[in-house]
Structure formats: C-alpha cells, structure tokens
C-alpha cells in the first residue's frame, strides 16, 4: 500500500500572504480541515488547519456567517498562524510507515511530496479509508480470520496459502496483527471464490483456529 494511491492529489493551497479569511472560505467551500502553504506553486513551507483559526475566532463563529469573522480574519496573514516546515511524507512511501509516523508525531495529516514538490495531502481519514477498503469484504468477497500461535513455523503460512489455491480462492488481501497480551497473531484473509465453506472446513481439519468468517 503506497501513499500515492490513497492521498488527495492536487490539494487546495494557500500562500503565506493570503488572509485567514481566504483559508476559512476555502475550508467551508471544499469541506476540508487543512491547507498546505506553498511558495512558487508547489514548494511546501507550512500547513494551516482549522485549529489554527480557533486561535482567532471561536468554533461557533467558524460555523457562522462570514460577517461574524470577516474583520478579524481579513487582517491576519497565513504566515502568522501556520505550522512552519510541517512533517511530510513521500508519494512512494509505504502507507503503513506514514501512518506510524503520523501516530508518533501526533499530527492529523502530511503534505505529500515527490522530488521536493507538493503533489498531495494525506490525512488520518485517508488512512482509515485505506484500512477499511482493504479489510472489509464487498458483495463478491468473503473474509476469514485465523488465530495463529506465535510458535507456529513459517511453513504454516505456506500451507495456508496453498489451501486457498487448492480450493480456488483468489486472495485479495492479507492482514496480520498481534494479539494483545499473547504471542499469537490474527491473520485476516479477504478472498473470493465459490468454495469458501469447503475452504473453512479444510482449514479446521488442518489445525487452523478460524475465529471469524463472513
């Protein structure tokens, strides 16, 4: 999973000399929470978000008509409110790595760069959308979750994949995560095929602990 395929490309931007009123208008018009601040069209220098507006107006005023915020926001430049040199990620970066850095840095979004130029923005919402689309099944797919003991040899993974192949199941996605306070892991398979019930039965007979199937 690569950032490029989940980011919002060509995001709405502002310059350092724009007013916060223009930021407020853009956020309302496009339904967004953050805007990259750029120079020369695509050189990232900052990030301005809705919480930055709350230093100058209340949340209630931000939801109200323009007349209530125009005078204050019109006089303030973006440069006075933005986060300077925000953390960024690369378009070709693995989504998992970007998500972990976002969590560690406690930020809600990264401007996305390619060769130093702004090409997009990716937020926590985009990360959740990626996880949801990867993990959830559609009308033509099934999901099987298996608990795998931490001491299981690597060959068990090969056996799992081989069983899917033998029962004609096309693997669409494989997700794994540790079980809290346990050495085991949960492996979730999203797959499509006509013999899923037979596959589940075969998994049980092969000693796999199937904990969920939908």
Structure overview:
By secondary structure, the chain is an alpha+beta fold. The protein has 2 domains: 3-131, CBS-domain, CATH 3.10.580; 136-213, 2-Layer Sandwich (Alpha-Beta Plaits). The chain contains 8 helices and 11 strands. The protein has helices at 20-30, 50-53, 59-63, 70-74, 95-105, 124-135, 155-166, 196-205, and strands at 8-9, 34-39, 43-49, 83-84, 89-90, 109-114, 117-123, 142-148, 170-178, 185-192, 209-213. Strand 9 (170-178) and strand 10 form a beta hairpin.
A few lines on this structure:
By secondary structure, the protein is an alpha+beta fold.
Which CATH architecture of the largest domain? Roll
The neighbouring-strand order within the major sheet is 1-7-6-5
Q: In the residues, how many domains can be counted?
A: 2
CATH class of the largest domain: Alpha Beta
The average pLDDT value, as a whole number, equals 89
CATH topology of the largest domain: CBS-domain
Could you say which overall geometry the principal axes of the C-alpha atoms support? elongated
Poorly predicted spans: none
Continuous helix count? 8
As a percent range, the share of helical residues equals 25-40%
Topology, number of strands? 11
Cα-atom radius of gyration? 23 Å
Q: What would you give as the CATH superfamily of the largest domain?
A: CBS-domain
Order of helices and strands: EHEEHHHEEHEEHEHEEHE
């Amino acid at each position: 999973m690569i950032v490029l395929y989940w980011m919002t490309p060509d995001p709405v931007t502002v310059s350092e000399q724009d007013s916060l009123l223009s930021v407020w208008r853009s956020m309302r018009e496009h339904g967004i929470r953050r805007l990259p601040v750029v120079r020369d069209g695509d050189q990232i220098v900052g990030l301005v978000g809705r919480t930055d507006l709350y230093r100058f107006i209340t949340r209630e005023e931000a939801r109200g008509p323009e007349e209530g915020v125009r005078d204050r926001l019109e006089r303030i430049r973006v440069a006075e409110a933005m986060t300077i040199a925000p953390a960024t990620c690369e378009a070709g970066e693995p989504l998992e790595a970007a998500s972990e850095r976002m969590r560690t840095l406690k930020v809600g979004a990264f401007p996305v760069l390619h060769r130093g130029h702004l090409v997009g923005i990716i937020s926590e919402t985009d990360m959740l959308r990626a996880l949801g689309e990867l993990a959830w099944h559609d009308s033509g797919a099934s999901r099987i979750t298996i608990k795998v003991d931490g001491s299981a040899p690597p060959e068990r993974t090969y056996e799992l994949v081989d069983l899917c192949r033998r029962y004609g199941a096309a693997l669409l996605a494989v997700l794994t995560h540790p079980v809290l306070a346990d050495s085991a892991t949960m492996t979730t398979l999203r797959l499509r095929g006509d013999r899923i019930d037979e596959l589940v039965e075969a998994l049980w007979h092969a000693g796999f602990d199937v904990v969920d199937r939908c």
